[in-house]
Write a structure and sequence with these properties.
The structure is a single chain. The chain has a single domain (5-45, 64-165), classed as Deoxyuridine 5'-Triphosphate Nucleotidohydrolase, Chain A (Distorted Sandwich). The chain has 3 helices and 13 strands. It has helices spanning 5-13, 64-71, 114-117; strands spanning 17-20, 28-29, 32-36, 40-44, 72-76, 82-84, 89-100, 106-112, 121-122, 129-130, 135-144, 150-152, 157-165. A hairpin with a 2-residue loop joins strand 2 and strand 3 (32-36).
């Protein structure tokens, strides 16, 4: 069951989840709440001359954090914004921290905004699920699939959080590889 704006406000008031900083009234949609883009991003760089450009996630000992650290840099979006070229992938973060209490029977999805999708901006490639018990800022896999560059600005509405009630309480709160992930910087 997807929570309505009223249900989301009730869940916030009852401490079942927290969104910090709290969303303003205009962030609420009938079935979700808008989240904004943080100023910190991770920008992939081209391979250095002679560097093997192939990523091998099935290689023994592969670690996604090490792989990203070896081929990307953290940047800050300045006042002029960041221009995302067509076909380019960056990792972004929400400005808001979202904490889902383990016993609240809530999970969430992060979804793109249709107004941005219609110009080619995708904010998650295949990873929309925010598991019950998750805490922290939400990392976004942002790619421009459109025909023109898109200017990203810190604080812009970039995605929607859709909250769903689970049928029960998980045996364990989320403890996967992204547990407690932090924004760059």
């Amino acid at each position: 069951m997807i929570l309505t704006d009223r249900d989301i406000r009730d869940a916030l008031a009852e401490g079942q989840l927290s969104i910090t900083p709290p969303p303003p009234d205009e962030a609420y949609a009938p079935n979700g709440v808008d989240l904004t883009l943080d100023a910190r991003m991770t920008l992939y760089r081209d391979p250095a001359p002679g560097e093997d450009p192939v990523i091998d996630p099935a290689r023994p000992g592969y670690n996604f954090r090490d792989a990203i650290a070896s081929m990307a840099d953290d940047i800050e979006i300045g006042p002029e914004g960041f221009v995302l070229a067509p076909g380019r992938l960056v990792l972004g973060w929400t400005s808001e921290r979202v904490d889902l209490q383990p016993l609240a029977r809530l999970a969430a999805r992060v979804e793109g905004k249709s107004s941005l999708a219609r110009i080619g901006l995708i904010v998650h490639l295949t990873a929309p699920t925010i598991h019950a018990g998750s805490t922290g800022r939400i990392q976004l896999e942002i790619i421009n699939l459109g025909p023109r560059p898109i200017r990203l600005r810190a604080g812009m509405k970039v995605c929607q959080l859709i909250l769903e009630q689970t049928l029960g309480v998980p045996q364990n709160a989320y403890r996967g590889q992204f547990a407690g992930q932090r924004a760059a910087g």
